[in-house]
Write a structure and sequence with these properties.
The chain is α/β, with parallel strands linked by helices. Strand 1 and strand 2 form a beta hairpin. The protein is globular and about 60 Å long. The structure holds octanoyl-coenzyme A. The site of octanoyl-coenzyme A has 21 residues, from helix 2 and strand 6. Octanoyl-coenzyme A binds next to helix 2 and strand 6.
Length: 258
């Protein structure tokens, strides 16, 4: 029986995607990235899902793009197939919150995949690096762009130019990850966080995600304008009125995700 490179599961309103090429430390090849993209889009379209978790194994979240697959590619191969753009960037189209639960190696494309998620929960064993320079390659799945935005130019240059590896505590100090938890608790704690998030009003979550992402991609004036309209739109949401009335009535809100 052929093992699928990605396993898909649900836990209540949380969709769980597990990268599953353990022998290759979850090296990210086209088959895996195609399935990951399809799973992300399916969960994004599913009304019963409010948040998505991507995880790997205890040893590796993902050790990067599959070097064996890439070794003989030419410029024309990657140009014509739209390498990275065609399937790696599917995650950018996902409007629901995506959490990465990272244990072990998150290297190269694995680190870049985690950076493309909205929240990174790191196990104490997590290790983050962009070691493409060792291959005379370049962190080309968003690494040279998202890492400096996440941790600043000084730390990002150090990681990209010297292949410096960060442990979980360093990654936490630099703002690369959202939380650090013991390895044994990684999945339960990430799922609990995802379940907590997924219980909130989905359109409010989507509006907040879009607004925070806008902060990365625009000037402050433009971002504030985007945020203001996102706020105004909240007043057309049944959930927002329910949330405020429930607070005033000292009761738990009943969200319809509308
Ligand atoms: N691709 C393919 N196979 C891999 C990869 C990978 N990225 N990483 C590990 N493997 C394989 C190994 O070849 C090995 O296979 P085998 O058992 O058949 O020999 C198996 O996984 C286990 O690996 P190791 O024996 O090396 O395990 P160690 O515990 O000794 O080391 C490391 C673990 C440190 C993670 C080590 O495997 C390593 O350095 N891996 C490569 C990390 C790396 O360079 N990642 C960046 C890849 S390039 C990239 O991600 C670019 C993305 C940007 C877009 C594309 C532009 C390049």
């Amino acid at each position: 029986m052929i093992e699928e490179p990605v396993r898909v599961d649900t836990r209540g309103r949380v969709g769980v995607i597990t990268l599953n090429r353990p022998k290759q430390l979850n090296a990210l090849n086209d088959a895996l990235m195609d399935q990951l993209g399809a799973a992300l889009l399916a969960f994004d379209a599913d009304d019963g899902i409010g948040a998505i978790v991507i995880t790997g194994s205890e040893r590796a979240f993902a050790a990067g793009a599959d070097i064996e697959a890439m070794a003989d590619w030419s410029f024309m191969d990657v140009y014509q197939s739209g390498f990275i753009t065609r399937n790696w960037e599917t995650i950018r189209r996902v409007r629901k919150p995506v959490l990465a639960a990272v244990a072990g190696f998150a290297m190269g494309g694995g680190c870049e995949l985690a950076l493309a998620c909205d929240i990174i929960v790191a196990a104490e064993s997590a290790k983050f690096a962009l070691p493409e320079i060792k291959l005379a390659m370049l962190p080309g799945a968003g690494g040279t762009q998202r890492l400096p935005r996440a941790i600043g130019k000084a730390k990002a240059m150090d990681m990209c130019l010297s292949a410096r590896m960060l442990d979980a505590q360093e990654a936490d100090r630099y703002g690369l990850v959202s939380r650090v938890v013991p390895d044994a608790e990684l999945l339960d704690r990430t799922l609990a966080l995802a379940e907590q998030i997924a219980a909130f009003s989905l359109p409010a979550l989507m509006a907040i995600k879009a607004s925070v992402n806008r902060a990365w991609e625009s000037s402050l004036t433009e971002g504030i304008l985007f945020e203001r309209h996102a706020l105004y739109e909240r007043f057309s949401s049944a959930d927002a009125h329910e949330g405020m009335r429930a607070f005033l009535g000292k009761r738990t809100p009943l969200f319809q995700h509308r």
